[in-house]
Amino acid sequence: MTATVAPGDLNEFCTRCGRSLRASSSVRRGYGPTCVSYLHNARDNADLSEFHPWQADKASELLETCGLVPTDHPNVYRAVSSDGSRTYLSTTDGCTCKAGQYRVPCYHRASVTMLRATRKTRRRRARAPR
Ligand SMILES: [Zn+2]
Ligand SMILES: [Zn+2]
Predict the structure, then answer these.
(1) Which ligand gives the minimal distance to the CA of 58?
(2) Strand order in the sheet with 68-70
Protein backbone atom coordinates (compact mmCIF):
# COMPACT_ATOMS: atom_id res chain seq x y z
CA MET A 1 0.00 0.00 0.00
CA THR A 2 1.46 3.32 -1.02
CA ALA A 3 -0.25 6.36 0.37
CA THR A 4 0.77 9.51 -1.41
CA VAL A 5 -2.11 11.62 -0.15
CA ALA A 6 -2.80 12.48 3.47
CA PRO A 7 -5.50 10.18 4.85
CA GLY A 8 -7.74 13.11 5.66
CA ASP A 9 -7.91 14.05 1.99
CA LEU A 10 -9.27 10.71 0.98
CA ASN A 11 -12.73 9.27 1.20
CA GLU A 12 -12.41 5.59 1.74
CA PHE A 13 -16.11 5.10 1.83
CA CYS A 14 -18.91 6.37 -0.33
CA THR A 15 -20.66 9.31 1.30
CA ARG A 16 -24.03 8.11 0.16
CA CYS A 17 -24.05 4.33 0.54
CA GLY A 18 -21.01 3.72 2.75
CA ARG A 19 -19.41 1.16 0.45
CA SER A 20 -15.66 1.23 0.25
CA LEU A 21 -14.34 3.08 -2.77
CA ARG A 22 -11.65 1.67 -5.00
CA ALA A 23 -11.23 3.80 -8.09
CA SER A 24 -9.06 6.80 -7.28
CA SER A 25 -11.52 9.09 -9.05
CA SER A 26 -14.26 7.84 -6.74
CA VAL A 27 -12.05 8.29 -3.70
CA ARG A 28 -11.40 11.88 -4.65
CA ARG A 29 -15.04 12.53 -5.28
CA GLY A 30 -16.23 10.72 -2.18
CA TYR A 31 -18.93 8.84 -4.07
CA GLY A 32 -19.03 5.66 -6.10
CA PRO A 33 -20.00 5.95 -9.77
CA THR A 34 -23.61 4.89 -9.18
CA CYS A 35 -24.09 7.29 -6.34
CA VAL A 36 -22.75 10.19 -8.37
CA SER A 37 -25.54 9.66 -10.85
CA TYR A 38 -28.04 9.73 -7.99
CA LEU A 39 -26.56 12.97 -6.79
CA HIS A 40 -27.24 14.60 -10.11
CA ASN A 41 -30.91 13.83 -9.61
CA ALA A 42 -30.92 14.70 -5.93
CA ARG A 43 -32.13 18.23 -6.41
CA ASP A 44 -35.07 17.13 -8.52
CA ASN A 45 -36.08 14.40 -6.10
CA ALA A 46 -35.83 16.35 -2.88
CA ASP A 47 -38.57 18.51 -1.44
CA LEU A 48 -36.65 21.74 -0.97
CA SER A 49 -39.67 24.00 -0.66
CA GLU A 50 -38.59 25.40 2.71
CA PHE A 51 -35.20 26.44 1.36
CA HIS A 52 -34.18 29.35 -0.82
CA PRO A 53 -32.93 28.53 -4.33
CA TRP A 54 -29.46 29.79 -3.40
CA GLN A 55 -29.46 27.36 -0.50
CA ALA A 56 -30.26 24.55 -2.88
CA ASP A 57 -27.30 25.71 -5.00
CA LYS A 58 -24.99 25.72 -2.00
CA ALA A 59 -26.38 22.37 -0.93
CA SER A 60 -25.56 20.70 -4.26
CA GLU A 61 -22.13 22.27 -4.12
CA LEU A 62 -21.64 20.90 -0.62
CA LEU A 63 -22.62 17.44 -1.77
CA GLU A 64 -20.45 17.52 -4.85
CA THR A 65 -17.42 18.67 -2.92
CA CYS A 66 -17.93 15.97 -0.24
CA GLY A 67 -18.71 18.62 2.33
CA LEU A 68 -21.30 16.33 3.86
CA VAL A 69 -20.09 13.13 5.48
CA PRO A 70 -22.00 10.43 7.32
CA THR A 71 -21.47 9.90 11.03
CA ASP A 72 -22.00 6.82 13.16
CA HIS A 73 -25.64 7.78 13.42
CA PRO A 74 -27.52 6.87 10.24
CA ASN A 75 -29.53 10.09 10.10
CA VAL A 76 -26.84 12.50 11.20
CA TYR A 77 -24.31 14.04 8.85
CA ARG A 78 -21.32 16.23 9.41
CA ALA A 79 -21.36 19.34 7.24
CA VAL A 80 -18.25 21.36 6.56
CA SER A 81 -18.65 25.14 6.82
CA SER A 82 -18.10 27.22 3.70
CA ASP A 83 -14.58 28.25 4.70
CA GLY A 84 -13.74 24.71 5.77
CA SER A 85 -12.80 25.75 9.29
CA ARG A 86 -15.72 24.21 11.15
CA THR A 87 -18.09 21.32 10.92
CA TYR A 88 -21.70 21.12 11.97
CA LEU A 89 -23.94 18.22 12.73
CA SER A 90 -26.97 18.19 10.50
CA THR A 91 -30.09 16.13 10.12
CA THR A 92 -33.11 16.72 7.91
CA ASP A 93 -34.71 18.77 10.68
CA GLY A 94 -31.90 20.29 12.64
CA CYS A 95 -28.39 21.66 12.40
CA THR A 96 -25.81 22.88 14.88
CA CYS A 97 -24.81 25.90 12.76
CA LYS A 98 -25.84 29.41 13.76
CA ALA A 99 -28.93 29.44 11.58
CA GLY A 100 -29.87 25.97 12.74
CA GLN A 101 -29.71 27.01 16.37
CA TYR A 102 -32.38 29.60 15.61
CA ARG A 103 -34.40 26.95 13.77
CA VAL A 104 -33.78 28.82 10.52
CA PRO A 105 -33.48 26.57 7.46
CA CYS A 106 -29.84 26.35 6.40
CA TYR A 107 -28.19 24.86 3.36
CA HIS A 108 -26.60 22.13 5.47
CA ARG A 109 -30.04 20.77 6.14
CA ALA A 110 -30.91 21.26 2.49
CA SER A 111 -27.99 19.06 1.52
CA VAL A 112 -29.01 16.37 4.02
CA THR A 113 -32.51 16.55 2.58
CA MET A 114 -31.09 16.12 -0.91
CA LEU A 115 -28.85 13.24 0.06
CA ARG A 116 -31.68 11.49 1.86
CA ALA A 117 -33.96 12.01 -1.11
CA THR A 118 -31.57 10.04 -3.30
CA ARG A 119 -32.06 7.07 -1.02
CA LYS A 120 -35.76 6.85 -1.70
CA THR A 121 -35.05 6.42 -5.38
CA ARG A 122 -33.37 3.12 -4.60
CA ARG A 123 -36.73 1.47 -4.88
CA ARG A 124 -36.80 2.37 -8.51
CA ARG A 125 -34.47 0.34 -10.64
CA ALA A 126 -31.43 2.32 -11.60
CA ARG A 127 -30.42 2.18 -15.21
CA ALA A 128 -27.66 -0.38 -15.55
CA PRO A 129 -24.35 1.40 -15.90
CA ARG A 130 -22.87 -1.19 -18.19
ZN1 LIG B 1 -22.17 4.83 -3.03
ZN1 LIG C 1 -26.67 24.45 9.17
Answers:
(1) 2
(2) 68-70, 77-80, 87-91, 94-95
